[in-house]
Amino acid sequence: MKNLSVVIITFNEERNIARCLNSVKEIADDIVIVDSGSTDKTEEICKTFNVNFIKQSWLGYSEQKNFANQQALYDWIFSLDADEELSSELIQSIKEAKQQDKEIYYKINRLTNYCGKWIKYGGWYPDIKLRIFNRTNSKWIGTIHETLINEKNIPEVLLKGNCNHYTYYNKEEHIAQARKFSDLAAQDLFGKGKKVFPLNFIFSPIIKFIRNYFLLAGFLDGAYGFRIACISAKAAYWKYAKLKQLSCYKR
Length: 251
Prior knowledge:
two-stranded antiparallel sheet, single chain
């Protein structure tokens, strides 16, 4: 992997994008940003860096990323989110990986900063993601929480270091995103012909809370761990409520 293209999709990321771009300077041979219509200073900030800034109307999470990959100069892609930042240890790991001649895909650990606190429990860490790959053998699929498909089962290696993920800055942002994702999840289930049952409204939120807060030790993150578990439980309820609504419209 001699050359590496860093590919980022953006929408109103003025508070995050500079931090992200500064962190990839040492490992990027090409930086592509595909923006879906930002109305803040995202474009202005991006153009202070050496990047290829492309405007593209929103295609959906997977298709937007697949489109962005095709705009890169090189086949080897590092797919990064605008609210992410490479730690110094991860930067060094990527530098070493670039010297390898073998065809290997690379995974990273994400460490999430939630409202100013690093979250290490509740299933949030290590949040392992496959992010460095060859675009000729890979593609993104999925409506939400898109997944990268390693089409030729190329060996995957976990890099040392963390990718710092600066997620929600306040509770309201988390709730808004949870509602958005629950709507998308319901639409996905509806498209697959899934049905909703009364017990879904009771057991799904309870199971989600118990899993995140107790089984995955979310309580060790203190008040933030409790908040995250509660919002996740609410999102499970919202998903089925939306699915029921869609089912009623169908009738």
